[in-house]
Design goal:
- By secondary structure, this protein is of the alpha+beta class.
- It has a single domain, classed as Lambda Exonuclease, Chain A.
- It contains seven helices and five strands.
- The protein has a five-stranded mixed beta sheet with strand order 1-2-3-4-5.
- Strand 2 and strand 3 form a beta hairpin.
- Helix 2 runs antiparallel to helix 7 and helix 6 crosses helix 7.
- The longest helix has 21 residues.
- The radius of gyration is 22 Å and the shape is globular.
- It starts with 12 loop residues before the first helix and ends in a 25-residue tail after the last helix.
Length: 248
């Protein structure tokens, strides 16, 4: 990591100590990357719709994963925390970081926190929101209405969870906040709430769980396709798409 003292050609011992001190605090930032979520083995709401079905199966099976973190997710976590603190000034308009119990089946307990639920200005409905702190490419895709199935399913599952708390959910939304552009470039992509999208995603999990009871998780995991971009299981070879319902 480059550390410089301006207008100094040669470091004396005090300069060297100051540089070492700065290097220590820079290195310690990385220690902050690992949070409680980094060690989570249970599948989360945001992971259910992942294109990497092998990774979904591994998480359903509770397979251990080496915890890791990086700078961009750390920035996202920091922005989320700041937004939660900031929006607390309007308690009549928003419900923040609500714990949602979305679905239970056998050993699966799918739960998590939703960034925000907003009371619609029509006084009747409820709008779900999830913050996404992203780079310029994702901002441009969002501006064109391009949203991944993983994001779409995540939002619908949040809607499903809110619905179980008695909220009349009309829409789910993904607010894409620019990581390296002005806030005026932010994009809000909304979808009408569709319970069936959430149910279909949950049904896919049920199928995996039932298949694993018959043939074991290793066989179910092997049957699943691996997405080319998935870092969580990048060491595994990609398999052909298979219908695990045939294993039951």
């Amino acid at each position: 990591m480059p550390i410089q003292i301006l207008k100094v050609d040669e470091h004396n011992p005090v300069d060297k100590a100051a540089v070492d001190t700065a290097e220590r605090w820079l290195l310690r930032i990385r220690d902050l990357f690992l949070t409680e979520r980094s060690y989570q083995t249970a599948i989360g709401i945001s992971e259910v719709g992942s294109d990497c079905r092998k990774c979904v199966a591994r998480k359903l099976a509770g397979k251990p994963k080496t915890p890791e973190g990086s700078w961009f997710p750390f920035l996202g976590t920091a922005v989320h925390a700041a937004l939660e603190d900031g929006f607390e000034r309007w308690p009549d308009d928003y419900v923040l970081e609500q714990k949602l119990s979305v679905f239970e089946y056998k050993s699966l307990k799918l739960a998590g926190s939703c960034d925000m639920g907003a009371y619609s200005v029509d006084g009747e409905h409820f709008v779900v929101n999830d913050w996404k702190v992203v780079g310029e490419k994702k901002i441009k895709e969002a501006a064109k209405g391009k949203v991944s199935d993983q994001y779409r399913i995540q939002a619908m599952l949040y809607g499903f969870g809110w619905e179980q708390l008695g909220k009349k959910v009309s829409h789910v939304s993904l607010t894409f906040l620019p990581r390296d552009l002005d806030l005026t470039e932010a994009q809000v992509v909304m979808l009408r709430y569709d319970r069936q999208v959430a149910q279909d995603a949950l049904d896919a999990l049920v199928t995996m769980i039932d298949a694993a009871e018959v043939v074991g998780w290793d066989a179910v995991i092997e049957k699943q396709p691996k997405a080319s971009f998935c870092w969580d299981c990048k060491k595994f070879e990609q398999k052909e798409v298979g219908d695990v319902s045939s294993l039951i």
